[in-house]
Design a protein that fits this description.
Number of helices of chain B: 31
CATH architecture of the largest domain in chain B: 3-Layer(aba) Sandwich
Radius of gyration of chain C: 20 Å
Shape of chain B: elongated
Strand order of the largest sheet of chain B: 2-3-4-1-5-6-8
Strand content of chain C: under 5%
Number of helices of chain C: 1
Strand content of chain B: 5-15%
Structural class of chain C: mainly alpha
Organism (chain A): Flavobacterium cellulosilyticum
Structural class of chain B: alpha/beta
Largest sheet of chain C: none
Oligomer: heterotrimer
Domain Ferrous iron transporter FeoA-like (chain A): 3-74
Pfam family, one (chain A): FeoA
Number of strands of chain B: 12
Number of domains of chain B: 3
Distance between the termini of chain B: 78 Å
Distance between the termini of chain C: 61 Å
Order of helices and strands of chain C: H
Protein name (chain A): Ferrous iron transport protein A
Helix content of chain C: 55-70%
CATH superfamily of the largest domain in chain B: P-loop containing nucleotide triphosphate hydrolases
CATH topology of the largest domain in chain B: Rossmann fold
Largest interface: A-B, 30 and 44 residues
InterPro entries (chain A): Fe-transptr_FeoA-like, FeoA, FeoA_core_dom, Transcriptional_repressor_C
Largest sheet of chain B: 7 strands, mixed
Amino acid sequence: MKTTIASLKKGESAIIKDFDADIIPLKLLEMGCLPGNLVKLLQIAPFGDPLYLDINGSHLAIRIETAREIEIESIIK
Amino acid sequence: MSKQNINVALIGNPNTGKTSVFNALTGLKQQVGNYPGITVEKKMGFCKLSNTIDANILDLPGTYSLNASSADENVVIELLLNKNDKLYPDVIVVVSEVENLKRNLLLFTQIKDLEIPTILVINMIDRMDYKGISLDIPYLESHLNTKIALVSSRKNIGIDSFKKLITTYKTLSTAPCLNASSIDEDYFDTLRKTFPNQSLYKLWLVITQDVNFVDLHRKSLKNNSFTKTDSELKRLQQKETIKRYQFINEILKVGQKVNSATAKDFRSKLDRILTHKVWGYLIFFFILFGIFQSIFEWSKIPMDYIDRTFANLSSLANNTLPPGAFTNLIAQGIIPGIGGILIFIPQITFLFLFISILEESGYMSRVVFLMDKIMRKFGLSGKSIVPLISGTACAIPAIMATRNIENWKERLITILVTPFTTCSARLPVYAIIIGLVIPDQFVFGFLNLQGLTLMFLYLLGFAMAIFSAYILHKVLKLNCKTFFVVEMPNYKLPLLKNVVINVIEKTKAFVFGAGKIILSIAVILWFLATNGPTHKFSDADTIITSKNENFGLNKTDLNSKIASYKLENSYIGIMGKSIEPAISPLGYDWKIGIAIISSFAAREVFVGTLATIYSVGGSDNEDTIKNKMASEVHPETGKKIFNFASGISLLLFYAFAMQCASTLAVTKKETNSWKWPLGQLVFMSGFAYIVALLAYQILK
Amino acid sequence: MLQEILAFITLGIAVVFLFKKFFFKRKKSDKNCGDDCNCH
């Protein structure tokens, strides 16, 4: 199984590795979700979805199905 | 020396304080579109920059990039690329914010590539020390080919030098930041050869967006086989975004220093509470509850005052002006009509006040985050919360606010169910009927029963919206790729100036927009109520006098009998009587029927209509609308017209019926089809009729 | 008489205003969204 943003635990950070460009909306890229950037999981909404992230300094929330498409590496606890 | 007039366009990411910069420049010299809505329509303002230069400031909808992903963002692109538009800017001001500079600069580099003079405003500089950020302005200016204005619209710092900077717009560099051809060399080479006179980035935007221009039509590009598949285009747009970020990162590496050690975090603590699985929902519920209780409690006094003042004005006009048709029109048509508009001002003001505080503070995004999962079960998005709450003000801006919902199915369902939420136009109807049929008592010593009823009606509206969304979710078969991105802005103390300007603008829009309609209808109603087609109307005096000869009535009673006979035989009376069979099972008389029909222009007209009908029908003008309604009895049974059963039935009818022509028009516009507004009309009104019928028959 | 003329002028203004408002709305090019999912 791939390691994705969805596998992060609250408070953990990681580096964005790769994602399928056709699935991820352009808007997310424009907000800084690009390979090589740092992502931190700040909060998880009640019932486990959506996820509240800090990507490259941008604070934003995405749904878990989108998070599952974004591969990450080198998780920092 | 003649004055020069220039166009300035303000553009920026959402939550950068763009609107406060706009307010700081223009103050109250603003014009918004007809309907309230936060920077959805074109918003213009005026600003005197110097003794020789005046500026028209255009506040464009907030956007993250020029790659439009919503109808709102299309507006931005169309304006910026159309040189023939009379609003085409002489200079563009990109508003950015110190904490999110990197992301804000993405939009800046795109704007810069349009080769229009551009100024970069960095807002919220008062937070720089607090966040441990320092900027090398000369470095940034030279590498971004622009001039930078450091401002704090909140603390009013730097606005004057910013204004001065705008006046120097002719000296600004128009050199682009990114060489568009580096996205795909071969492709852009051929483009350049075919259209030697166009800017490359502009061509690129036209290829990737669904926009057309006078001098550059998308079709002409299609014929030249420049189109690529959607997937190829998307890949190129991604490449573009990555290139832009590389450029920005290089510059900020030198131009921006962040000392994260000094950055303190208040946001995460508040987030933890406000999005908590128990506290989050409780706080949200209490905020809503508080809003509705205070709207009802606080606006009661000014509303009663306005009601009484206009009743007095009416009788004053009647007693002092020379008698005649025009005086009657003023006393019975125009004055009650204006009263019927002004009476809503207190409630609307409070409502808009609360909504704009929720939006300004950043709390609304937390609610979106909190509610998304739950809302999705009903086919809605967390973002549907914003239209559903702002729908309590007016469904029209609320429906326009659905534009930022990315998924079409979720957006469509939100549009269709939003009119169920209790809009401010229903409020006066509720207020007056609750005042008549629900006792003014307290339960548990502090909860006002009338306030509770109002709260219940609001909840009912929400519940019905959610319930119909669920049905639509199950019935509609649309397969859409879902995606959901919502920015979580930092918490901000709402800026009094912004809130006040927002509230004034919206109240003004209501008074002058809906107000004109209400007043016109009041005038027409008055004519219909004071003229009749048959001799029964013109000979009412003699008919009634001869009928009652033997009863020995005093003059007042006789006059009021004549007046009500006249009303029954006037045009409006005949219309009302003809629909009476349809509405009497609901407990309404023909006068209420007329009020319901005229409500189709705008619901608020209900109260004004009854005011007009009772003013014409009654002999004294001094009484308030509420007292007139309270004393109205059924001519045959002698029972009160506004009793508990008919009151509840009316409340339910107004809660569910689709009675707003403007909402239907905006649904048509946003869905591009008549199918959906017609569905709303038939389903909502049919349902309202059935529920009201059941309620009356059970309660009577 | 003057009173009646004034009253009818007011009526005329009201009718014309409402008529304009609801029947002669300036049509702008609406191309926001279709029935499909491609409205972004």
